[in-house]
Amino acid sequence: LILINRSVPTSKPTSVCILLLIVSDTHSTDAQRMFPRTGPRRLLFISLEFQRGCFSGNGVYAQSQVRSLRSLGHEVLVLAGSPEAAGHNGIAPVTDSVDLIEVPCPNWGRLDINSGWREFAEGAATAAVTAAVVGFKAEAVLGVDWHALPAWQALTAGSMLQTSDTRPLGATPYIYLNYRVYTRTAANDALPVVRRLERDAVAAAAAVICLSRSDSHYIISHLLGEEAGIGAEASNAGIGAEVPAHPADGDVRPCAAMAGAAGAPPVSVLLPALRSDMEQIPLPRDGVSADVPSISHPAGSDAAGPQPGTSDAPHARCQHSGTQRRYLTCCVRLSPEKEADRFVALVEALSRPSPQVTPHGTGSEESGEPRSRLEALKLVPLMCGAATTEYGKTLQARLLAAVPSAVIESRFLPPTELAKVFAATKLNVHPCVYDAYGMTVVEAASQGAPSVVMVGGAVGATDLLSPTAGECFAVDMGSPPEQLAAAIEEQLQDEEALAATGARAAARARSWTETANASSLMQTVDAVLLAST
């Protein structure tokens, strides 16, 4: 440090400080720690579901993260599964010039223990795939959910595989992107298998990133807790990206670190952002689209809909008419863990007259019979989701039996059509008592449609859209159907509250973007790489 005092023709002397810092070896570990690299990275992204045959929020969010990482200048190689029928294996370019290696997998349309995760790992171990991954020379690996780790382990099984002359492939830091804690919903024989696979994924990780505080607490207390001695009441440190705190809850941020234990990987929360293709679709004017769709289920069409990723099977057609929000919507994957059966039970209850209303003056003029509560509210049930299992087909049949005019949209909708659905939605029902996030809650909000979710914070989207801030509604989804119907009927009768909640939800949903999400993710990646030097 050189201090120079120089007299100048003023009333007071001026002090000038010059700091000279000389680094003799810019390749040393000390230099790397003093000047950590923050430029473009080379990242391997592993996800069972990605682009081809995308059937759930996992694939949508994986594409969103890869797209946003690429937009920041990072090179991303994707290793993903694809439907077996696609008959494609190898390296192929996809949208936005993201390199993609696809492994055909059986049992497509599932993410549980009966999915094609074993075949995904076997395909990852082939010579062509391993050569491509080794040649890419990734600096870090981002693995989505427990399905990714067996594929990564298969890639690194050969001791001679190396990313450089001195660094084995297995030394590349592995960051676990936990999109959902499957242990929380697995049952029977699947539970011990899934629990072991998720514990292995957490143990192998240099860092764990999950979608909600609820999942982060569960990972710390149940997947790390027994080994690390961490209690279920781990504190929320609130450390994260420079983004505004939640207006109703000062410790909630779109990226926040959770307390852990020495030797355990750090566990952090990174809220999914509204994907850019939905963000680019403007809000409906005055809260209601001038181009609101009227959707009808074609008579005689196959209620089960097409297989995931296809668009040529019969499906609900969208016409454009009307200017009112007229749908009571449910848009979740038709699988048991999403509990869409609760929405169907709700509709069955609402299809009957209210038990508090006498028949007089409430019936149709023609029949004199009391109107259903849905008729009184002038609402039509709409359920989005492909029925690829008996569970889904049964739900669709029950819905149509309860309300023959109900709408069933069996396709996996592209952004523009999904936006049209939500622009015509008065209330979006997210029926499960637990969800790692619930991206359709945020997507509904982007079109001014408020959602009703499980009370208590077990649905991750409430970390972004707060019930206490009036950005969504919260009820006990585990209530008996008639009790749940009464609570939701009361909400539907308050037009002013629906409109205000939808407006607040839209503003909040559009405040957290893909770019901000990717920037926060890269803070964790850079910290992991710095720690590994």
Describe the fold and architecture.
The protein has about 525 residues and is of the alpha/beta class. The chain is about 35% helix and about 15% strand. Helix 10 packs parallel to helix 12. The N terminus is likely disordered.
Q: What percentage of the residues does DSSP assign to strands (E)?
A: 15-25%
The span between the termini is: 29 Å
Mean pLDDT: 78
**Helical proportion, percent range:** 25-40%
Our Rg estimate from Cα atoms comes to: 26 Å
Q: Which stretches are poorly predicted, pLDDT < 50 over at least 5 residues?
A: 1-35, 86-97, 227-253, 287-323, 358-365
Strand order of the biggest β-sheet: 5-6-4-3-7-8-9-11-10
Overall geometric form: globular
SS summary, helix count: 17
Task: Give the class from helix and strand content and strand pairing.
Answer: alpha/beta
Give the biggest beta sheet: 9 strands, mixed
Compute the number of strand runs. 19
Notable traits:
nine-stranded mixed β-sheet; six-stranded parallel β-sheet; alpha/beta; globular; disordered N terminus; single chain; 533 residues; 33% helix; 17% strand
Summarize the structure.
This protein has 533 residues and is an alpha/beta fold. The chain is 33% helix and 17% strand.
